[in-house]
Automatic annotation (TrEMBL):
InterPro entries linked: FAD-bd, FAD/NAD-bd_sf
Pfam families per the UniProt record, alphabetical: FAD_binding_3 (PF01494)
Full protein name: FAD-dependent monooxygenase
GO molecular function, one term: FAD binding
UniProt domain FAD-binding: residue ranges: 289-341
Keywords: FAD, Flavoprotein, Monooxygenase, Oxidoreductase
Source organism: Amycolatopsis alba DSM 44262
């Protein structure tokens, strides 16, 4: 069996690792010109199911490394004013495992064949039931299954399910990260809390690696090369819904809305890493229209993109990867046919994917500043 995967995000790479571990040929095609071509380094909280899913896709010999490069989710879940006085509570929080997306992606990339600069533009189902994937450059590639793991603006989805389109929630936020110094460790009350300013909300989260990733890889799995990332604070400011940054950089956009804020909060933004700061918009994709199982399917944000306030997009993408991996292994071993395996995956994925999107949208209003 040969599987083509469009998209080298968390879901596509986890699936490729899981298939490779089972001896199934899986090639990944990524639109970006290079793996590190743009901002990717934010922190994610994985719940137990998401963490078990990524573990299941990785070879067991890398499990000690995975355990070493994560951290524990920690959050006070308070509502604070800009001087850090407590003014309320956010309600029950999330516990789980904190990972850096960039670091996890590097682990997932190890040993895979990934063609970068390969934007999928379309596909054609062939008479023999296989599928040809077409790319902006180069020849089409034939496979038994094409998996669209190509994110919220999925090109695979545009053909497979053209009526499933992203919805823009209108919410914009700037996000960045700052090295975790002793001064910023003192902001622990704000980690996992919401700082409610005038028309904006600031959210902070700490990424504390149990072992620095590069050192952990050198010690535990020398064949893996991980980036040299140190502990940091991830900050995200949700903006008023006028749609514009109103400043030349994400930091300036945040600082321009922080007059009179606690000096440690201002310093946190001032000292952030400009290469890891960006403006993002929150778009969701709700899985609605089922299609007849065939040699093309979808996974992750391509079929159920959530609002980051739900904290479940990566968890759900990884759950997809693990579920599809297990279904495809059964097909490769002759225990069921390929279309039944894909159909069974899609039936389960549609149910929990739709629930994940609903949950994330329910969680959004608590973070959006009142205008
Ligand atoms: C700030 C932020 C915080 C978040 N926090 C959390 C959290 O705490 N917990 C959680 O569970 N989730 C979180 N999420 C959500 C999570 O990051 C995503 O849901 C997850 O990365 C989706 O994985 P994916 O593989 O489906 O898609 P992506 O990671 O988006 O990957 C898609 C890939 O496909 C590539 N691509 C796109 N088009 C094409 C094409 N035509 N051809 C080839 N390649 C293509 C893209 O370049 C990209 O590399 C957060 C998201 C953000 C933005």
């Amino acid at each position: 069996m040969r599987v083509s995967i469009a998209g080298a995000g968390l879901g596509g790479l986890a699936l490729a690792q899981g298939l490779r571990g089972a001896g199934i040929e899986a090639d990944v095609y990524e639109r970006d010109p290079a793996i590190t071509a743009r901002f990717q380094g934010y922190r994610l909280v994985l719940n137990q199911a998401g963490f078990e899913a990524v573990r299941g896709c990785l070879p067991p010999r890398w499990h000690p490394l995975l355990d070493a490069i994560v951290g524990d989710a920690y959050g006070e879940r308070l509502i604070l004013d800009p001087r850090l006085n407590t003014i309320g509570e956010l309600g029950p929080g999330r516990t789980g495992t904190v990972v850096d997306r960039h670091v996890l992606r590097h682990l997932l990339l190890t040993g895979l064949t990934v063609r970068t600069g390969a934007a999928l533009t379309g596909y054609e189902v062939l008479a023999d039931g296989k599928v040809d994937a077409r790319f902006s450059h180069g020849e089409p590639v034939t496979a038994d299954l094409l998996v669209g793991a190509d994110g919220v603006a999925s090109a695979v989805r545009a053909t497979l399910s053209p009526r499933t389109v992203p919805t823009d929630t209108g919410v914009r936020f700037v996000i960045g990260r700052t090295t975790l110094t002793e001064r910023f460790a003192g902001l622990s009350k704000a980690f996992g809390s919401k700082i409610a300013g005038d028309g904006v909300s600031l959210l902070l989260g700490a990424m504390r690696f149990r072992t620095p990733p590069k050192e952990a890889a050198e010690e535990l799995a020398p064949e893996v090369s991980l980036p040299d990332v140190r502990d940091y604070v991830r900050w995200a400011m949700i903006l008023p819904s006028d749609g514009s940054l109103g400043a030349s950089s994400p930091q300036e956009a945040a600082l321009s809305r922080m007059d009179g804020w606690h000096p440690d909060l201002r310093a946190l933004i001032e000292q952030s890493d400009p290469d890891n700061s960006t403006l993002l918009s929150i778009r969701v994709v709700e899985p609605r229209e089922r299609w007849a199982p065939g040699p093309v399917t979808l996974l992750g944000d391509a079929v159920h993109a959530t609002s980051p306030t739900g904290g479940n997009g990566a968890n759900t993408a990884l759950r997809d990867a693990d579920l599809l991996r297990r279904s495809l292994i059964e097909a490769a071993e002759g225990r069921r046919n390929l279309l039944d395996a894909v159909g069974d995956y899609e039936r389960q994925m549609f149910a929990y994917g739709a629930e994940a999107v609903r949950h994330s949208l329910d969680a959004l209003p608590a973070y959006v500043p009142k205008s």
